[in-house]
Sequence to fold (429 residues):
Amino acid sequence: GIIMRIDKDRIQDKNQKDLKSHQESFDFLSNRLEKNNCNVNDIIDKLSKFQVAIPSWALGAGGTRFGRFSFQGEPSTLEQKIDDVGILHALTQTAGAISLHIPWDVPQDYEAIKQLAVSHNIIFDAVNSNTFQDQKNAEKSYRFGSLSNREKTIREQAVQHNIDVINIGRKLGSKSLTVWLADGSNFPGQNNFQNALQHTQDSLKNIYGALPDDWKMFIEYKPYEPNFYSTVIQDWGTSFMLANECGEKAYTLVDLGHHLPNSNIEQIVATLMLKGKLGGFHFNDSKYGDDDITVGSIKPYTLFLIFNELVYGMNNNPQNPYPAWMIDASHNIKDPLEDLIQSLEAIQEAYAKALLIDQAQLRAAQIENDVVRCQEILQNAYRTDVRPLLQQARLTTGGALSPLHIYRSLKVRENLITARGVNSKAVGL
Ligand code: PSV
Ligand code: MN
Ligand code: MN
Fold:
């Protein structure tokens, strides 16, 4: 197929006109930060190393049950999805991984797919199983659940699917499996809670038994939807318990959209990291439910507080592995690639602000019970415009000073439409 890619020379060329003004704002900010004992080089280094996986299902326009308005030039093959992530990575230098969903993304030619990913400098992060839909030619239906189903043969089919997903991921170099279940019930009395949980535990253990030694299993939780009365893995506590019972390679996965309103997600993060069980992280934002909208578009301060705990955990909890980061968003009306660029920027911004927090001073203020100073320390960091740091990080890695501007000025979407056609559609959610 036609390959869309943006080479570094092109980006450098486009960066030229903003270079001088960037240098001015960067110098101004770094002088100020250095005066406050901030190690700017260290922050730049951390920002450029921070890579977030893009899920293969986020590259087309999503939609709701009321309709789906597809976006022109959507990727319709796995190759094209990888090319799209390549574009994001070339511009932002932050999207160095793709997360596949099976069976939507089963490769035909593994070697060719791997080579394509290498050519874009992206790796295969967690592979995702799908037991929330019935697949073509499936013998059994997941209508009444998968890993939790009352019927043994249905559970076995779902377990086998997860093992198949592991084997596909192995061939691509993935190192983790994410399990998200839609299992639950729509009406009181429909399910026996205890049986459903017990079956889920047993099924997860069977999957865990097939996990290679150097792999991790991430157990995602969600309070409701698609089931509206109960969900088997409804919260972090249930996920944590299941992960503990499976073993040391099993972890909880936090998706920002999977909490009831006003949950203290930053505290959940702290608890899981203390216990060494935060394995994966899905970014998105929401106002009402699992809205999956652009990261940082609704609650940027909460995102910053969450990053504060993530940074603290990464520095103080060697018992917790480095988490697998992914954006789990969908795009109803925006160009998916533009939306993802905005999300990546918001993630880096929250991370940079969290890195500005003077942990020693915060600790001192906490010990003195100086609540006002504690708040000032957090808010001083939050109120700093860190965008020049993000730009500097991108500049040093060959990315774009302004990814969105370059995306538009290179007419990337127009080129994708020419290459793929107006009606090209992505499979997925
Ligand atoms: C469903 O809510 C969901 O968004 C979960 O977050 C999964 O990670 C994703 O779909 C794909 O399975
Ligand atoms: Mn998710
Ligand atoms: Mn979700």
